[in-house]
Amino acid sequence: MPLVLLECDKVIPEREKHVYLKVEGEDTRDYLPVANAPTIPGSLSERGCSFCGAKLVIGGVLKDTIQMIHGPIGCAYNTWHTKRYPSDGDNFQLKYVMSSDMKEGHVVFGGDKRLYEAMNDAFNEFPHIKRMIVYTTCPTALIGDDIKSTVKRVTQERADVDIFTVECPGFAGVSQSKGHHVLNIGWVNDKVGQVEPEITSEYTINVIGDYNIQGDTFMLQQYWDKLGIQVIAHFTGNAKYDDCRAMHRAKLNVVNCARSAGYIANELMKRYGIPRLDVDTWGFNYMAEAIRKICTFFGIEERGEALIAEEYAKWEGKLNWYKERLAGKKMAVWTGGPRLWHWTKAVEDDLGINVVAMSSKFGHQEDFEKIIARGRAGTFYIDDANELEFYEVLARTKPDVIFTGPRVGDLVKKLHIPYINGHGYHNGPYMGFEGFVNLARDFYNATRNPLLGLAAKDIRAPRRSAVLEAAE
Ligand code: CFM
User: Fold this and answer.
1) Can you list the domains of the chain with their CATH numbers?
2) Radius of gyration of the chain, Cα coordinates, nearest whole angstrom
3) Which of 257, 263, 344 best tests ligand 1's pocket when mutated (most atoms within 8 Å of CB)?
4) pLDDT digits (tens, 9 = 90+) for 226-279
């Protein structure tokens, strides 16, 4: 079937190019939705801005770094605390975000002085923190504030600090995806190669595109420890700023989120000759495959097989308990993009769940190639969906559960469809073997929870006798 013009899109027919319903026998040679293109005027996008992609997704995860947002306070507040990426430290990264708090006068007369003061205030306030990322935002980019020279001045005056500059205002691209790109390339240009790590194993990797959502990185770290693999840097789950300056010393880049961080893996390959190995870490089959691939690279296959056997022995029974009860359930996934291709076959293989609709906020066509290749026929594949499209696709596909963010989640709650936070998770972590059991448990609980059904009950009806009801 070709691309689909939904009923609600009759007034914005250009949306047809972004909605694909796959039928048996078709593959990605036939149809691919348009992706990574500007949102069509009239379509209320769910996307984030480019600055957000740099700050909230990647930079903000670093556990020992002041996040300095040069702009009005909203840019800082709205990219703070909305994602759960803990650290093994004091969770500085979750507690604080700094802003130069630009007001109208600074926009008119320039904000460089304001930024200079804010940077010094922040370093003075947190004397134990010596690292900082400074971000431009739309207003400060538009008025042409020279943040690089302010950063240079502060660096010269404070010998013990190191500062990274991200010049990626919200309007820099069509979605948060641009922010990933800018931060990746900026980091490899400005920071990689500056720190020499202590090498403790002959097997060294960077884990790229893990963000420690509810402890994903901790989950995988158990495996690396058991395998005797040293992680030089996580880019950027539970990471330290200086670890990420030492990425050039790993022997292998293990890439989880190829969308947000494939760029730096490619640059590390080009500049330092470090090979790139893409893996999936959600799902039993995929996680086992990832361990096998990494262990094969290092020639430690037996260690990998032992670990896989140990983890299967621990968790497979639990997974199968859920699988028996979840088989045939229908799921929709509406997140950024990569989780669509990471999850669709994983839930199908490991849990017997059918993914009936997927929407990507900012995936590129490369992501849709993977999503559609791994996805089923009869499934909707949508780029940058809007709210009305969600309603219509839900009515057509009737999923049991939706994995999405709180914004869309609140919408679907009104339809009494359970949602699970597909970004920050409900009760994660979800990566790794144990993590996938957590995902299955959250799915199971969501479908068994009576609350949404009760919320729809009309309690004005007179109570009927239990005896009568039982007799019916
Ligand atoms: Fe990568 Fe991510 Fe994702 Fe992403 Fe995101 Fe995310 Fe996501 Mo939310 S880095 S692309 S920009 S896997 S925040 S941890 S869940 S939309 S699919």
Assistant:
1) 50-173 (3.40.50.1980), 204-308 (3.40.50.1980)
2) 24
3) 257
4) 999 999 999 999 999 999 999 999 999 999 999 999 999 999 999 999 999 999
